[in-house]
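USER:
Make up one protein:

ASSISTANT:
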Amino acid sequence: MAMAMRTAAARVAARVVTDRVSGYNKGFGFVRYATIEHAAEGIKGMDGKFLDGWAISAVYARPRPPPPGNNAGPPSYQPGYGSQFGQRKIISGRS
């Protein structure tokens, strides 16, 4: 992949994402270019092409979506996880 995505020494780094357990690649990777213009050239040059029998989809990286569930913030801001909000105070009649 790194050799296929190079453009006139504008490629800075390339990384194929692999599975932590098996070590097999996950079918995607990241290429870092020196400038946005070089990245646009690399995407234009590789998008829709074939590499080793596989169709290549070259796009700009997108941010990771937030995880599903309660996204109220870090645990310190959620009631019951060490914050003062949502904790029960036990009041007994004994002094």
The beta strands are 11-18, 25-33, 50-51, 54-55. The first strand starts at residue 11 and ends at 18.
